[in-house]
Amino acid sequence: MENPFVISYRELRVYQAAFESAMQVFERSREFPIAEQEQLTTMLLRASRSVCVNIAQAWQKRRNQQAFIARLNHAETEAAATQVWIEFAVLCGYLEAEIGQELHHEYQQVLADLARLIEHSAAWVVNAES
Q1: Global pTM?
Q2: In the predicted model, is pLDDT for residue 4 greater than 70?
């Protein structure tokens, strides 16, 4: 049964949080050294943005619960990867520890929200006969 109150993935709290966090990552990464552009910066930006993309793709796969869950699982892996890249940025001295902790916490919340969405995925599946 589809949730009648949400008509777009953009309305999902988890998408909004992931998008906002990805934008914060982008803003912070602008201060990283040029030497890290191909390695850390690109990988961090790619992972953080991929969380949002995977949520959007999952939304479009709601006719098939397993495909929906699989795409949400991809979003989870990208959120976890983002946390790892944030940790590298902190340990390399490109990101202040406090900011790194805040970003890590934001992605931990995204992970918790994704887990709840997966746990209750049946409520979000679109009935193909509707």
Answers
A1: 0.92
A2: no
